[in-house]
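Alpha-L-fucosidase
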Amino acid sequence: MTLLIYWISLLFCLLSYASSFGTRYTPDWASLDSRPLPEWYDEVKFGIFVHWGVFSVPAFGSEWFWWYWKVALKPEYILFMVKNYPPGYSYTDFAPDFHAQFFDPDEWADIFEASGAKYVVLTSKHHEGFTNWGSQTSWNWNSVDNGPHRDLVGDLGAAIRKRSLHYGLYHSLYEWFNPIYLSDKQSGFKTQEFVEKKAMPELYDLVNRYKPDLIWSDGDWEAPDTYWNSTGFLAWLYNDSPVKDVVVTNDRWGLGCYCKHGGYYNCADKFTPGQLPNHKWEKCQSVDTISWGYRRNMKLSELMDLPSIIKDMVYVVALGGNYLLNVGPTADGMIAPVFEERLRGIGAWLKVNGEAIYSTKPWRVQAENATVPVWYTSKSSTVYAILTSNPMQNSFKLLTPKTSHNTVVTLLGNPEPLKWAPLQTSGLIVLLPDLPFSPAEAWTLKLHAVA
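Structure:
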């Protein structure tokens, strides 16, 4: 009996010891997809995406400049090189001019904080293979040994975290012209030399060195996740990495994975679902509608204006998503004034209306076709009705909310309760004050104690 008691006690100790380490995830999608998404990500709602690299030097057409010039053979890219650079000029010759001499990470972080964003995602490496930190497997094709001669990932991360923002890193799995990757590709991805020598060592290095709160994977579409060993990496990330309890990942981990596997779903770039998805998602959108990287040839008509950005963000949040808005800095490290103006405009709107965005949930109805478009978000017993244009009238009907004797209606930014009356069947009519001027052309009605 004494021996039985001993073994039972030992078993309880072992179970207690195991539970103290939480759930262990195995390297398969069934297990990895069962991991709960860390709460911070759903609460923050709005982030800034930053595409920055050697492509910022030619700053022409797109961050896919190298590919369009050498593979797609787009005439405008070829002509650009013929007109502006000598014969024999190679893409790698651009790197020394990626000097970032005006890059002030604290200044960037101030702008991002002023935008109201709660997380920032920087490109650690795009498809060109140039790493924005001193990767030991980059063979001098990195920002420490070349170009800026500084650790861009680390410098920005320190500034972002001083402002209590979350820091994420974009990382492209594949590289267009890496000879090791091209060799694996030629084998039909039966060999994994690039994964073992380049892709995975860099990901492990990024996590251990910078401890990102988010990993935004990309460049996955040519090969399956079994080639990339994605599930093995994610199992380590969720079980044993220094960020295992807080890190968030997206869904781009191999051919056929997006919108199916991973932490949250990006699906396609600028993903815009027509109805409320059943999984946490994110829309990445660029202020410059043509390119993610900086373009010297961009035109004002090709940029999103502030009302368009706010409407897009409200739509995304109402449908349960996060909004990741991209800006492309210049090669010398500046955020163009037109981008800064947009970001500060968002922040000004969020100072008044952020209560209807941050930490909200989708309501039972996401939108209503009133006299102007209305999008709904919710928080406990409070519902927010966001008007994305001015109704130009004093009385305004909302047909969806079910009122009670305790219902109180206010306009965010205006402390005085508004007069309202219930409609006969459902909804209410509210007496609007003169709406204050809003460059964003959006206002929020706060409805307390409605169903």
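Residues 1-6, 8-20 have pLDDT under 50 and may be disordered.
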